[in-house]
Design goal:
It is a single chain. Helix content is 29%, strand content 22%. The protein is built from three helices and four strands; from the N terminus they run E-H-E-H-E-E-H. The strands form two sheets. It has a two-stranded parallel ribbon with strand order 1-2. It has a two-stranded antiparallel sheet with strand order 3-4.
Length: 79
């Protein structure tokens, strides 16, 4: 499983965040909110991001999708 974080912040902002919190996974910059829109992770205003978790299989199928912060065990089971 390869976790990724996606949000509209800049690449520079992500670098600082990764350094500060010592994440061991990449953060992707989505300033136009293209990825967020494609994965239904935008709030009603179309600008703010709603935390959403997806597990996507190697074959490209969505194995798990949930808004919010689901239990880690649920995510791992879906992987």
């Amino acid at each position: 499983m390869q976790p990724l974080g996606v949000n509209p912040a800049s690449v520079e902002s992500h670098r600082g965040y990764v350094d500060k919190f010592q994440f061991n996974f990449p953060l992707l910059s989505d300033p136009e909110r293209t990825i967020a829109g494609a994965y239904n992770a935008l709030r009603e205003d179309g600008q703010r991001i709603q935390r959403t978790v997806y597990v996507i299989g190697r074959d490209g199928t969505v194995r798990f999708a949930q808004r919010g912060a689901p239990p880690v065990d649920d995510i791992v089971r879906a992987a």
